[in-house]
Amino acid sequence: MALGHFQQTSLAHAGTLLQGGFRLGVAASAASFAGGSLGTVLGLGNLTGITENIEKSTTQAGNSNMPNKVVANHTITVNFELLELWPASFAAIRGGSLDTENSATASTYISGASTANTFSTGGLNILSAKSFIFENVTMVDNASATTILVIYKATIEQGVVFTPKSDHDTDPAMVYPFTLTGELDTVRTKGDQLFYIESELGV
């Protein structure tokens, strides 16, 4: 059943609909993204989910019966998937200290190959936090409008996942999902420690 005309409305802020996907990049710190850089571009992929997580606790002052809600923990969960089997991207996402990665190095296990891209992992090590950037470009009135999301400090939440497909699958390309947890960068000022959004939409 169609809504009556009296229930229809228009955008309160023109040109603020975010459409399409994002380009993905990673760097040692958010400062690397200044001036339009995406750091190390992670290649073809999809940003599939972003969730800001706010865990609350309460405090009760004096003889008040109305406890104040306070933020006990503040994180962000980011889910994305890559389509390119590129070991250098995997190592960058995982912090660079967890793995051993080489491009075009001597092949060990592939018979008849002189060089190969290699990625190995395993062992107890530090998970180094990285900064991540996600860039969207949306067309508004025949002009492009860019939106940037920067996660200041994030680490992987899971290891590499491989889900092989049939050669005859409708889409036989395998995807590689990643989950990040962004945590507070306490070196930054309060109110600007978790993530940052910058957008030309509606400007």
Describe the structure.
The protein has 203 residues and is mainly beta. The strands form two sheets. Strands 1, 2, 3, 4, 7, 8, 9 and 10 form an eight-stranded antiparallel beta sheet that branches. It has one helix at 87-93, and strands at 23-27, 40-41, 45-59, 68-82, 99-106, 115-121, 130-140, 143-156, 176-182, 195-199. 3% of the residues lie in helices and 44% in strands. The protein has one domain. The longest helix is centred in the middle third of the chain and has 7 residues, at 87-93. Strand 3 and strand 4 form a beta hairpin.
Low-confidence stretches: none
Average pLDDT rating: 92
Tell me the structural class: mainly beta
Radius of gyration: 22 Å
The major beta sheet can be summarized as: 8 strands, antiparallel
Extended strand count: 10
Overall shape: it is: globular
Q: Helix tally?
A: 1
The ordered string of helix (H) and strand (E) elements is: EEEEHEEEEEE
Number of domains: 1
Terminal CA distance reads 35 Å
Helix content: under 10%
Secondary structure blueprint with pairings:
Elements (H helix, E strand, L loop, with lengths): L22 E5 L12 E2 L3 E15 L8 E15 L4 H7 L5 E8 L8 E7 L8 E11 L2 E14 L19 E7 L12 E5 L4
Antiparallel strand pairs: 1-2, 1-7, 3-4, 4-9, 5-6, 7-8, 8-9, 8-10
